[in-house]
Write a structure and sequence with these properties.
This protein is mostly helical and about 280 residues long. It has 11 helices and 2 strands; from the N terminus they run H-H-H-H-H-H-H-H-H-H-H-E-E.
């Protein structure tokens, strides 16, 4: 039982003395409860720090695995993707892999192009999803090509055909009415890439004129010609500013279609288009 001194209670009534005793008892109880809470908070804080340390360890581990996966991808794209999926850093869906390639952080763009150009079912689905991530709405064709060709490096000639077909489909989907059909967009896109090669490859001594570029593209619009103003604007754009190429090892768009022993070429559904170089 809690006691108080006679001096403290000399002028208090019995009821007041009891109230003082009760107050001081409650104060002592509260102090004990506060001490217990402080001890519990200290224990929880220690546990939280332990959990945070474990979380940081897991985060660091995942970051390390992601870095390894990217390095593997840059050396061998197929094995890199398999590693990332195996370690649950990527989902095994074409859409998730496409997002990863489109974001492109730490990825070699030559490796991205090689992966997208592989002709198996999964890679082709990834290519479809990858192209669909691009927004070409209200862009003129050369602007859309600049955006598209910055996101990866074109692989060898044998792999680029389907990639450019998907580009043409996406462009026409987002810009209906610009071209009469997808093939027109496809052929003109190739012609622009060839023009970039011919105008800016130092090995090409005789640069094509705008008249040659116009003649090259005659009849590609469903048997008719595209407006001269359009062709001339495309020519001027490429002449003034070549395609910017990601700085990876490998061939670039200055050499994509160039072979000093033959003509530049394009073959699409029986149609042959060339610059003499």
């Amino acid at each position: 039982m809690m006691h108080v001194s006679d001096a403290e209670t000399r002028y208090l009534t019995p009821e007041e003395r009891q109230l003082l005793i009760d107050i001081r008892r409650r104060k002592a109880e509260l102090q004990n409860e506060i001490k217990q809470l402080q001890d519990e908070i200290a224990e929880v804080t220690i546990e939280m720090k332990k959990l945070e340390a474990q979380g940081e360890s897991k985060t660091n581990s995942r970051a390390k695995q992601l870095s390894i996966g990217k390095k593997k991808f840059n050396m061998d794209p197929k094995k890199g993707i398999e590693y990332l999926i195996e370690h649950r850093l990527l989902q095994s869906t074409a859409e998730n892999v496409a997002q990863f390639l489109y974001k492109g952080e730490g990825l070699n763009k030559t490796a991205i192009g090689d992966y997208l150009g592989e002709r198996n079912d999964f890679n082709m689905k990834v290519l479809d999803a990858f192209v669909d991530l691009h927004d070409f709405t209200d862009l003129i064709l050369v602007q859309a090509l600049r955006q598209f060709l910055w996101s990866f490096r074109l692989p060898g000639r044998l792999k680029i055909d389907r990639m450019m077909e998907k580009f043409a489909q996406r462009y026409c989907q987002l810009n209906p009415g610009v071209f009469s059909n997808i093939d027109t967009c496809y052929v003109l896109s190739f012609a622009i890439i060839m023009l970039n090669t011919s105008l800016h490859n130092p090995s090409v001594k005789e640069k094509p004129s705008v008249e040659q570029f116009i003649n090259m593209n005659r009849g590609i619009n469903n048997g008719g010609d595209l407006p001269h103003e359009l062709i001339m604007s495309l020519y001027d754009s490429i002449k003034q500013e070549p395609f910017k190429i990601p700085e990876d090892d490998g061939n670039d768009l200055m050499h994509t279609f160039f072979n000093p022993d033959r003509e530049g070429w394009l073959w699409k559904q029986g149609r042959y288009i060339s610059f003499t170089v």
